[in-house]
Amino acid sequence: MNSSPRTVLLILLACFSACLGTVYDNVTRLPGLTFDFVILGGGTAGNVVAHRLTENPAFSVLVLEAGVSNKDVLDSEVPALGAGLLVPGAPYTWSYVTTPQTAAENRVLRYPRGHLLGGTSSINGMWYTRGSQDDFDRYAEVTGDPGWGWLAMQPYFRKNEKWTEPADHHNTSGQFDPSVHSTTGINSVSLPGFQWPMFSRVIKTTTEMPDDFPFMLDMNAGIPLGVGWAQSTIGHGARSSSAVSYLATPFIERPNLHVLINAQVSRVLSINASRGSIHFSQVEFSQDRRGKHSYHVYIFPSNQPPTELFIVNAAKEIIISAGSVGSPQILLNSGVGDRTTLASLGIPCLVDNPSVGQNLSEQPLVSNSWFVNSTQTFESYTQNDTQLTLDLDRWNRTRQGPLVSTIVGGQAAFLRISEEESTIFQQHPDPAAGNNTPHIELQNGIGLDTSVPAEGGNFISLQTAVVSPASRGSIALNTSDPFQAPLIDLGLFVDDYDFFAMRIAIKKAVKFLSGNAWKGYVIRPIDDLAQALISDDALDAYMRNTVIAACHIVGSAAMSPENATWGVVNPDLLLKGATGIRIIDASVMPYIPSGHTQAPTYAIAERGADLIKQKWM
Ligand SMILES: Cc1cc2nc3c(=O)[nH]c(=O)nc-3n(C[C@H](O)[C@H](O)[C@H](O)COP(=O)(O)OP(=O)(O)OC[C@H]3O[C@@H](n4cnc5c(N)ncnc54)[C@H](O)[C@@H]3O)c2cc1C
Ligand SMILES: *[C@@H]1O[C@H](CO)[C@@H](O)[C@H](O)[C@H]1NC(C)=O
Ligand SMILES: *[C@@H]1O[C@H](CO)[C@@H](O)[C@H](O)[C@H]1NC(C)=O
Ligand SMILES: *[C@@H]1O[C@H](CO)[C@@H](O)[C@H](O)[C@H]1NC(C)=O
Ligand SMILES: *[C@@H]1O[C@H](CO)[C@@H](O)[C@H](O)[C@H]1NC(C)=O
Ligand SMILES: *[C@@H]1O[C@H](CO)[C@@H](O)[C@H](O)[C@H]1NC(C)=O
Ligand SMILES: *[C@@H]1O[C@H](CO)[C@@H](O)[C@H](O)[C@H]1NC(C)=O
Ligand SMILES: *[C@@H]1O[C@H](CO)[C@@H](O)[C@H](O)[C@H]1NC(C)=O
Ligand SMILES: *[C@@H]1O[C@H](CO)[C@@H](O)[C@H](O)[C@H]1NC(C)=O
Ligand SMILES: *[C@@H]1O[C@H](CO)[C@@H](O)[C@H](O)[C@H]1NC(C)=O
């Protein structure tokens, strides 16, 4: 598509009648069906790529997003209300469940992913952690591309990050290291904007037990070891998702940027697949597919697509940014995957690659809660409608008060399992990326984040996570219907090391709260945790019965060296074995970073966009 003045005029006219910026909800409103770049998924990474490519006015870009608009979704704006987005049946998440988790009592877990513009950055917990220097240096080593190393990636973290004052404008001196942050990026990042009484006790613990829990000035400086203040993708008391930031006015008004919501991609198509080498240049999608399950497999172009499917063309590249579940699913739907498995589903194989959907990595997480002798916890706010109305009104008028920050996200401890604590490393290679990389994390919560015990009360929690896990899982198709949910196996605890590490993490959480700082404040663990602490067997049962996912999956379309026998994309993020497709999202990380995954995803997307520009400029 070229952006002639007439096209621009048409788009402007269309916008007056039909859209929010250039966000369309109906394919019939698009100015054409051919674009230079078609991006599949308007999520965390996809919106970065859309923003950066449309900086060049000569490129036309279409984003296809399956989910709904993020506009006026209050629970996505108010940080403390984020849990409301995850309610089953709400349109803001994909209603995925996992396969029975064999090392966790065969439990089937709900597995949310963002289903609105901004993707998972519109529903996540907003933690901003880059991972360790070792994590990125390992990416460089396993891909053979030094461009993925920690130092080389710093400019991309900086392009993404816009360091912002916290909502309460408190003195942040000593709570972070300004030298490692950028104030000139796109996406807001800030320290907690409301001070809960728990916070000072956490900091006091670092002076009482510095050997176990040393203070860390900044968890984003490359060596995230110790207890430090959390940084969140929050700006002026509101969530800063990729939709709020990268698609803000005036960016969304660029005449070369088109975003279509309610557009679920089924497949990418190769018009000349029969001639040997595969080049993908078309994208097939449907509008309003939620809940509908009828689809007939057909071979294009001999059979015409069913009428409810649409096709758009990418003149330069298709960029798949549908996330760690969606991206491998689109590839598999399209015949890119293990030949035998695809054949068993009746899907013609275009590119035989057994790595698609394999090697998925997720962090196991357990929520541990304690009763506290205080009314200054979230329960007193979110479970009291009178108080909640007052606070929401305050948030709305001033962007101040307890709703400007998240329930879990004030501070965190990133820790290593020391040699003395464990003989595990004599039996099991250390899965962490290096000696400056944490094994486990404790995240504090100002309230209970599981179900409320019948007796009520006030709570704090310490969530424990194994941030450098060894287990691997997979994404696979359940049927040949591209609109059916895939099979999501997180592999939680399938490697005994992860179970072992979780046991140590929970014991460290108990130790953390045993210090003087907590005397008279922490009353006792809630019942299920109290039971678990009676014996090692009880603790093991508690872990298997309560473990959930940190929701940080990566690796299902992993990068590997150009001629490796495994992996899905090359270090330049181009799909192996075909042309025309790049994958840019969390799925390309071959190992999970030792923290939360959105900041690495943003930085990877910034570099990915740069790689595309270098090729086509
Ligand atoms: C509940 C929750 C809490 C989290 N908390 C944190 C946190 O606090 N900090 C942190 O760093 N990380 C957190 N994460 C993880 C982090 O948010 C993700 O790793 C990251 O946002 C992934 O980005 P992505 O671009 O890979 O995918 P996404 O942001 O999920 O983007 C994928 C997009 O593609 C769309 N899509 C998928 N399939 C199709 C299709 N077939 N057709 C069209 N569109 C499609 C989706 O709707 C979505 O918009 C959390 C995740 C969850 C689920
Ligand atoms: C899109 O618009 C066309 C023409 O106005 C209409 O027939 C169709 O039902 C609309 N589709 C959706 C999904 O709203
Ligand atoms: C912030 O606190 C630091 C030390 O805690 C102090 O040196 C500095 O003067 C304070 N800044 C302001 C603006 O009060
Ligand atoms: C397939 O088509 C694309 C463009 O449509 C072209 O660049 C490529 O060379 C073709 N491949 C073959 C094998 O014909
Ligand atoms: C999984 O990743 C490892 C490297 O981390 C690689 O050796 C192996 O071949 C991969 N397996 C698949 C199925 O891609
Ligand atoms: C709920 O909040 C209101 C307003 O702060 C307060 O007056 C009331 O006592 C609270 N109710 C309970 C049960 O704590
Ligand atoms: C916020 O304030 C505006 C303007 O007064 C009002 O229209 C809107 O309904 C308020 N929103 C909430 C959630 O209170
Ligand atoms: C897989 O498909 C079968 C048959 O359609 C269905 O019964 C089952 O619920 C599906 N599983 C998942 C996890 O969607
Ligand atoms: C709660 O704190 C008060 C003082 O603030 C103290 O008197 C009381 O003993 C504490 N209760 C418990 C159960 O620790
Ligand atoms: C991969 O193999 C091709 C063909 O043999 C070769 O041209 C290319 O240099 C190789 N790439 C690397 C990184 O080794």
From TrEMBL:
Annotated signal sequence range: 1-21
Cofactor: FAD
Gene3D superfamilies: FAD/NAD(P)-binding domain, Glucose Oxidase, domain 3
Domain of life: Eukaryota
Active site: 552, 596
Keywords, sorted A to Z: FAD, Flavoprotein, Signal
Keyword ATP-binding appears in the UniProt entry: no
Pfam families: GMC_oxred_C (PF05199), GMC_oxred_N (PF00732)
Glucose-methanol-choline oxidoreductase N-terminal domain: residues covered: 323-337
Residues that hold FAD according to the record: 120, 265
UniProt feature coiled coil, ranges: none
UniProt-listed InterPro entries: FAD/NAD-bd_sf, GMC_OxRdtase, GMC_OxRdtase_N, GMC_OxRtase_C
UniProt GO MF annotations: flavin adenine dinucleotide binding; oxidoreductase activity, acting on CH-OH group of donors
Membership in a protein family: Belongs to the GMC oxidoreductase family.
Protein name according to UniProt: Pyranose dehydrogenase
Species of origin: Mycena rosella
Upper taxonomic lineage: Eukaryota, Fungi, Dikarya, Basidiomycota, Agaricomycotina
